[in-house]
UniProtKB/TrEMBL annotation:
Pfam families: DCD
InterPro entries named among the record's database cross-references: dCTP_deaminase, dUTPase-like_sf, dUTPase_trimeric
Listed EC numbers: 3.5.4.13
SUPFAM superfamilies on file: dUTPase-like (SSF51283)
Gene Ontology MF, one: dCTP deaminase activity
Name of protein: dCTP deaminase
Alphabetically ordered keywords of this record: Hydrolase, Nucleotide metabolism
Amino acid sequence: MILTGPEICAAAGDGRIRISPFAPDQVNPNSYNVRLGPTLLTYTDPVIDAHRPNTTRATTIGRDGYVLRPDELYLGHTLEEVGSDTFVPLLFGRSSVGRLGLFVEITAPIGDIGFHGQWTLMLSPVRPLRVYPGMKIGQIMFFVSAGAIEAYCGKYQDAVGPQPSRYWHDLLGAGVS
C-alpha cells in the first residue's frame, strides 16, 4: 500500500516520516518531491575498483548551474533529509527531469526502514544538461510494510551530502580482500 499525499503530510506531522526541511507544496498525490543539493561527486580514478575505496572530486553547483556530461557518473544528493522508522521509502526521478534525459536513480531506489539522512543520487545524463541547486529532481514514495521491522543501522546512516560507494566495506566483514 502506498501513502497518499494527505497521509504523507499526516505522517510528517506526527513523526512517522521525517522530512527536513518539509514544504507542503512539495507534496504530490502519492509522493514527496525532493530537491538537488549543492554538491556533486565524481570518481577520479580511470577504473573504479569495487574492492577498495575510490578517490572522488567534489564540485559545488553554483547559482548559474552546472553542466552534467554524458559518459560520466555524478553522485548528487537530496537537499532534504528523509527517513522513516515505519514506512519503506522509494526514490525515483521526476518525469519532467527524465524528459530532459537525466537518469536520477540508476539501480537503487529503495531505502531501508530506519535510514535517516540525505539521499545520494546517481545522476547520468543522456546528453549535456545544466542542473541547478534546489531544483526538484526526484520524488519519494512511502509504502506500508508487513512483518517485524528491523531498523537500518548501516554504513550510510545520517548521510550528509553525496556518499561514494562503500561496497568494499562489506567485503571486510566477509573476509574478502
